[in-house]
Design a protein that fits this description.
CATH architecture: Orthogonal Bundle
Number of domains: 1
Order of helices and strands: HHHHHHHHH
Strand content: under 5%
Structural class: mainly alpha
Radius of gyration: 20 Å
C-alpha cells in the first residue's frame, strides 16, 4: 500500500505512563521510598521502565527547522520533562561522557537522588534524549510539510530540515553523532537507534516514490536512491559539525541539491 500523505507515516511521540501514556493517570502513582524534592519532584513520581518503543509508526526525520538559539529550559516544566530537556541540552553542549548525573542535578537545582528516581541510569537519559530528538524532528515535519504536495519541493524541504545550522539544529546533530558513537560500541543501543533512523529513511523513500508517481522523479529503485541520499546527508553533516576545512551549511545544501537534480529528478525534474 502506498501513501501519498506524508503525515500518514509520521509517528506521534507520547510521553507519560508506559501503560496509558498519561502523565497524570492512576498508573503513575508514587513508588515506595521515592525521593521528594520541592524544587523538582511534584505531580509525577512513578518510576518508569526504559521505554523500548514509545511509538507505533515507521517514519520521522532526524533533525532541523528555522535557525534557533540553543534552548534554555523553563523552570516551570513538569519535573521529568525538565530533567530530560536539561540533560539533553548538556549532552548536546558537552558530550555524553562529560555529563555527570551531578551536572544534571545542579542545572535543575535538585538532588542526584531525584534524577535517579526518574532516570535510574545515565544510559536511560541518552535513550530518552534520542527520543526527544525524534520528537523535535517530527514536530517540524508536521509543521513544514503538511501542505507541500509536490514531491520535488517536499524532498528539497526535507533536505533543508537536515542542515546542521547553528543553535538548536546543531545541538540535535550533536546528540545524533553521540548516539551513533554509543551504538557502535554498545549493541543494546542499536535497536533504539535504528528504530528512530528508519523513520527518517522511510520518509525519504516514500517521498521519492511519490515523486515517481507524480512524474517529477525518474524511474529507478527508490530504496537505492534513498540509501545514497541519506548517506550523503549523514557524511556531509558530520563534516560540517566537525569543522572539516571547506565544509559549511551552504556548501552542504548545494551538494545535496545537485545530487537530487542529477540523480533523482534527472530529466523528469527538468521537464517541470
Amino acid at each position: 500500500m502506498r501513501h501519498n500523505n506524508l503525515a500518514v507515516v509520521l509517528f506521534r511521540f507520547r510521553p507519560g505512563c508506559h501503560r496509558c501514556r498519561d502523565d497524570r493517570c492512576q498508573h503513575s502513582g508514587r513508588a515506595n521510598g521515592s525521593p521528594t524534592d520541592p524544587k523538582i519532584d511534584g505531580e509525577w513520581a512513578g518510576r518508569r521502565r526504559p521505554a523500548q518503543r514509545s511509538d507505533e509508526a515507521k517514519t520521522v526525520t532526524a533533525i532541523p527547522a528555522p535557525a534557533a538559539r540553543s534552548i534554555r529550559v523553563p523552570t516551570d516544566l513538569e519535573p521529568r520533562r525538565r530533567i530530560l530537556e536539561t540533560a539533553w541540552q548538556l549532552i548536546a553542549e558537552r558530550g555524553y561522557h562529560r555529563v555527570r548525573v551531578a551536572d544534571i542535578a545542579k542545572a535543575c537545582g535538585t538532588s542526584t537522588a531525584t534524577i535517579h528516581h526518574y532516570f535510574p541510569t545515565k544510559t536511560e537519559v541518552l535513550n530518552e534524549a534520542l527520543r526527544r530528538n525524534v520528537k523535535l524532528a517530527f514536530d517540524r515535519q508536521v509543521a513544514e510539510l503538511h501542505t507541500v504536495r509536490d514531491a520535488h519541493q517536499r524532498l528539497l524541504r526535507l533536505v533543508e530540515l537536515q542542515l546542521p545550522k547553528d543553535g538548536l539544529l546543531r545541538d540535535e546533530w550533536s546528540v545524533w553523532l553521540q548516539v551513533w558513537n554509543e551504538s557502535a560500541i554498545n549493541p543494546k543501543m542499536r535497536s533504539l537507534y535504528w528504530d528512530s533512523y528508519d523513520r527518517w529513511y522511510n520518509t525519504i523513500a516514500m517521498t521519492i516514490r511519490s515523486g515517481q508517481e507524480q512524474g517529477v522523479f525518474v524511474a529507478q529503485d527508490p530504496d537505492k536512491a534513498t540509501a545514497q541520499l541519506t548517506a550523503l546527508i549523514d557524511g556531509l553533516g558530520i563534516q560540517v559539525l566537525t569543522g572539516r576545512p571547506g565544509s559549511s551549511v551552504a556548501a552542504m545544501r548545494d551538494l545535496l541539491h545537485d545530487f537530487i537534480e542529477q540523480n533523482i529528478a534527472g530529466s523528469a525534474g527538468r521537464r517541470q
